[in-house]
Amino acid sequence: MIREEDKDHRVDSFLAHKKEGLSRVTVQRLIEEEKILVNGKKTKSSYKIQAKDRITVEEEKPKEIELKAQDIPVEIIYEDADIIVVNKPKGMVVHPANGNPDGTLVNAIMAICKDSLSGIGGEIRPGIVHRIDKDTSGILIIAKNDKAHINLSEQIKKHEIEKTYIAMVRGMVKENEATINMPIGRSTRDRKKMAVTKKGKEAVTHFKVIKRFSNHNCTLLEVKIETGRTHQIRVHLSQIGYPIIGDTVYSNGKNEWAIQGQCLHAKSLQFKHPITGKKMYLEAELPAYFQAMILEMG
Hints:
This protein is α+β, with helices and mostly antiparallel strands. The protein contains six helices and 14 strands.
């Protein structure tokens, strides 16, 4: 039931703000399909809700995704009986979901590893211990068995895996190195985005300058994260005024260099082998477009 303080809001914007996982576009589609009713009757997206209105939403059941192995080329950095470490290209989704049923890293890994993947991640996320965004390139570990998966997940939980990224940001970063400690949670303005918010979870990002390009007003950074919040590096750097070049979500749409995919690369991982305990340090080479951009800027 609608409270007095919520009245006069458009029903589509109200639901997109209040209901987790529903975008305004999705709400508008559900209204057209009469899966959202006000007081038991069909409505319009522009309807302004009133106190004591009752809004009902017919929940959509997630579509079942058939997981299949696909012969997709992926650079393998390291592989043994327990883990496989790859260099994920930008533009590739890590695991299937609605909207990306195939062509993902999981589909590629299934073709490489056959049946030797940990099942802990669930049917659509076999072996996945951690992930990086679709348009972020770089290094990822996949567990081949449950024992390796459990150990790696524990290392991540205890912040024992050191992750290092390379980022090209807009603006001349003044500090040679600094730490950003700002909580991150779901944006109240756009449920598809993350934001710095008091109600968010702790998020800690360290960065240091590799090189400043004054002629192009941008800076190359090395970034390390203590926590692994969704979009953490992108949100933190944008929040302090240095959005990642090519990031269409957190840079107000600005992309002077016409980069397809953000200039953010997961460069290296330092961790203990989940079975042998051996200390490991592995690197993924910067993608060609990123290297070319650095050379071009001088």
